[in-house]
Amino acid sequence: MTRIAGVAVSEAAFHFDKLYSYKIPPALADRVLVGGMVLVPFGKGSRPRMGVVLQVSEGEETPRLKELFDAAPEEACLTPDLLELVRFLKERTFCTYYEAVRAIIPYGAQYRPARAEGRPVLEKGLSRYTEAEYHLTGELPEKPRPTEKQKKAVELLAPGPLRLRQLEQNGISRAVIEGLCKKGVVSRLQVDKAPDLYGNIPFTGESIQLTAGQQAAYEELAPCLRDGQAHSALLYGVTGSGKTLVFLKLIEETLRLGRTALVLVPEISLTPQMIRRLKMTFGSRVAVQHSALNNTERLLQWQMIQKGGADIVVGTRSAVFAPLQNLGLIVMDEEQEHTYHSESAPRYSAHQVAARRAADNGALLLFASATPSLERFWAAKQGRCRLVRLTERYSGRPLPSVELVDMRAELAAGNGGEVSLALADQLKQTLAAGKQAILLLNRRGYRTVAQCADCGKSLKCPSCSVPMVYHKAQGRLMCHYCGQILQPPPEKCPECGGLLRYTGYGTQRIEEELARLFPQARILRMDQDTTTHKNAHEEMLARFARHEYDLMLGTQMVAKGLDFEDVTLVGVLGVDAMLNSQSFRAYENAFSLITQVVGRGGRADSPGHALIQTSDPSHPVLALAARQDYDAFFEQEIGFRRLGLYPPFCTLCLAGFSGAQEAQVLGAASRFGQLLAEEAGRGGQIPLRVLGPAPMNVAMVNGLYRYKLTIKCRGDKPFRDLMRRVMTRYSEEGLPVRASVTLDMNSDGDM
Ligand code: ADP
Ligand code: ZN
Asked: Mean pLDDT of all residues in the chain?
């Protein structure tokens, strides 16, 4: 008998993703643990591959059994509950084990293959960062007379040790503190760099005073924290109703009960504000997880959570895997946002993982929004999720009034610009009153498309079937799918030699127009192109909040959750494109985005006003958005969904196929459809509707053709078992060579 590890290896294809057995060499006996990372020989050439141990057992030694190469130390090990999530992700999203592991432990915690003395070994991907921490160890001698700085340093250190950075923030230089070390008054320790990333946010410990409405909402929810059972609830509150205050109070109660809390926000741009509020209320036991942290920061934060050093974790989608123990509360703010769905393997949605964790921990899962997803509101109406409403804005402030501006009338009146006269006029008044405005345009770049005046064709990316976008600042055309660049932008149509005209508009173009209209105004543009550097979101928003800018123009990142006192005017540009997008969620998304951005206005004493520019002012969705009437919108939209059989009345599963030869991709997709029909017809009753194959909305990306099968189903276990059989047969027939297949079990209708 020998000890054998069952290992899931990296880069496994779907139907080869099973446990492979390896002998554990005696030297590694203590290190090989369930949940640990290992390096194993794989395949004919016994090439080293990363893997994760999912099982350790006693078994017979056979001649073919290989010995594993190396194992990472215990601290890089997945805890049992995280291992459960690995299995959960594989079961639900059709990813491989290793893809699930990679999603769950941040990159920095992982090891990578290397060689040492000619042998394959694991090497840590990151070195540790340390910094100096100073402790008071003696008294200041009377002579020579201590300087003011020295006295201050001793005073600062009296309550407890501080790091150099903290001393410097209080005016104590390294020279002063090192001088005290020499005298033996202070001693220095090298410690792991502080995981407290936002240590400069003051802890005020102010008590939370809820309004009567907020208190009522809190009291409806608080019992769900106390009975140790899993619950889900929707906090449906208009913009500015103070949902955050209700979270804070619930978190306070969760901590009082000795449990931990997880707060998810849909975008990195929303984390600074949430962190600030949490830190001010709860102090330092708040950790952060999101993709804009560098690997070291991410790892340090992760380890702090894993060691039990944090009671509250804030972050974006992937924070749902934070290794918190004894979770009592999970908040998903702006739960309708599509950013909660992962768009690469594992294609999970944070909702499903959060629900699973809430069930495992007996926690309250609280969804919050002013415009919940149709699915969530439907579940609440059906009684499957508790519904709690906040109907009024804080201190009775009115919602902004909304006006639709008819852009056809503008054009007829001779204004061909992208900013209507009405909007320009309101902007002028806002600026004159010393207030601020937010303008939303969900499209970056300068001009969207280059179109030939002769043949009418638009200039497309050579590798993707989408128009190239003109970016003026860099003087080039760029493909937003594959990043390909054309520089300088061509003047002639490549097809017929006709003149190219640049039409359509993006944020850069509007910025220029605003600057021309209001030369005095300070304009801030926020989009993917201006927020690439670290902390860009945070800095820009802080500067706007300090009123260092008058106008903020941006993509959807300016629309949500932000709270600025001086904003009285909101403008929405380019809604027509949103309403006409191909997704079955087009109306839901447009309604939500408009309501969100309109809700940014009038949050303090001055009332807010919003303008929506459109070529279709009679559009029913716009009328509802103008009235900010979500309930009416829901009633109308749920009717469409029922008629068309869309979620929540079914689950939309998408099978995506991509490959270099169009005919082969189409053939493979059709074959997948046949296999699906065969397997579904066998035995049990699995209700299904299959549409396609059809080209995806973007039919080619990076030179690969893309097709999809749309499967309307129940999305339950029998369906997943069916899909697993189909995927296995697809692999066995060798079809992945023609077209790789990707399944998305929570699809919005495209990939
Ligand atoms: P929502 O997330 O529902 O849009 P917020 O939680 O951002 O709303 O609250 C809107 C504004 O009202 C914030 O500036 C917040 O500080 C303020 N506010 C809400 N409730 C209270 C309260 N009970 N006490 C003090 N300020 C509040
Ligand atoms: Zn491209």
From this structure: 88
